[in-house]
Model the fold of this input.
Amino acid sequence: MVGEGCGRSRSRGGAGFTLVEVLIAAALTVAVLGAALGVSADVRRALSHAIDDAAVEQEARAALAWIARTVSVAGSNPYGADLTPCAADATPFEALRLDADGNGVDDDVRVQADVNPPNGMLAGRAGECDEAGEDVTIAHDAGARTLTRRDAARDAAPVALTSAIVTGLAFTGFDAAGAPTRAFREIALIRVALTTESRARHSVLGGPVRATHTMDVHLRVR
Amino acid sequence: MRQQTGVALVTVVLLLGVLGVLSAALVLGAITDTLVARNLRSASEVRAAADAGVSHALALVMPALNRWQESGFVSPGAAMSALLAGPDGSPGPGAAAADNGSLEALGIPRPPARLALGSPGIEYEVQLVDDDDPQRGLALDSSEVARIGENGLDSVDANTRIAVRATGYGPAGARAFAEATLGPAPAPALVTAGALTLGDAVTVTGSHGSVHVNGDLVVAGGVSVAGDVTATGQLAVAAPVAIGGRAEGGVPSVAIPETLPLVYRHTADVVLGAEGLMRSAAGSVLCDASLVPDACPGWLFSAPGWVQQGAVAGGVYYVEGNLDLAGVLGSVAAPVALTALADGSILVTGSLTLQPALPRVLLVAGGDLVVSGNLVADREEALVAARGGVLIDGTARMAGQVVAEGAQGVGSLAAGSAVTGSLALRYTGLVGHAGDRGVVVAGWRWEP
Done:
């Protein structure tokens, strides 16, 4: 009876909701919208991280593919070029040099190959230096967290090839029998390990999500 | 009721909007990722196909080239030219050139016919090309063609280098190229049979800047060698030396072919006869020094041989007997193009700045070779060879390969081989006379 009376009273009188009803409705609305927005934010964050992870993964794969392509032709020297006149630090031809900067860390490699075009000159004639890709140093810039390239034919300084995602780079040489070696002339295979870090947080450990991508590159001219 | 319905509708619409935007972003991201992954996979597949094509061809071509002697070819380069000519054995021109570079005879179809790999649509084609062939798309200029020792004939090898070129094909027009350049295995810059002594003023440089002796080797302090220093016998090295490669005794011997000046006689522009006559390539007498020894300008006939004592024209000279290059000839700015071939020994007592008149050949002696004077020949790599020993007690600056066959009793100028004077020798493998160790993959490149 009370309910019916109330219902009739509202419809008849058009007095609207009581204050309590409005407050309850408002509270419920805020709670529902808040929860929805919270879920939405979580989803957007998760999506953003997933996209970021995927982008980092793709960038790492592309970087590894470029490294593999560059390193695989190391030592290609069909006409016996023995010097490059193009880098300021001109050095005799050597297929590859681990730890090119000599700091004791194998996070860089200098690769030489007469490939663009193969013509008996390394990086081009003196003063022209227009044969890109023939004397390339691949390195890790720990400060900027990037992979860098310095091409003796076109780069005065290292050029970043990735965004700030690279936290580690390691080159390990192996001889034809599969034994680790640092002797340049015995290296038949280079293992490249590229460690990246995305903006995502690890779901269990809480820290940044890191991944190490590894690739074995066979030197074609050995 | 109407007001309550409105609130719910707004809420649902808002939620649907948010979810819709998120879903769209997710779908777009997934589509983009799929396309990127597909492109990466496609690029990898066509490159792998090209790689497989080169490997397939190498597995067939390398054994064929490394059996060049058994197959009756005079050199690996001749075997390469034969392969370049294709199944019909003719490089052309015209219709005969259609099969140039085809490996049909070895079981690989002639392009544009392709071989399929396992995955659908992944195929490759392979052919051989000479390294100065425009089909490679390198656009080498004339100086580069000269630098690599080629002849501008795209189906005739001149430098013992050819390329195996494969194209990998994938779906949607994807393709990639891989190319392996075949060349001679590294041979040492200085090779001798019998004992060799290197003094303290010897510098050997270049990608093939090694020294090998089929015998005992004594290396004095101060010697600089970019590559290996090896000997089949004992190796004695005095410190300090700068050896870029390994220093080792007791290694296997290196093949040294017989050094026969006669092999090159047909290339001679001038023949200096044992009877004192100077003849042209056609056999006509240019001058007679049999009675008046200095009748031929620049030359002195001194049986059993000839002495160059003044300015002479460039060319390929063949001497029946010994040859003494005693005059002054050429300058650094203007070297004289001269190749000297002698049945007997060659002695350099003058001051000569030369470049080879016969490509890749500078001095070939049927006896000994002695450089007591000053010899500069570092513009083009060439062969300096003696059937007997090589003795350098003067000054020599050369590019190319120095070979002493070490045959006994063929000369009386050098008792064995030694460098007691000054020698600067640079070698990048363009001569390929001694130390034949077969054909190897000397270069590799990818496109794009």
About this structure: Chain A has one domain: 43-218. Residues 19-72 of chain A form the longest helix (54 residues). Residues 43-218 of chain A form one domain.
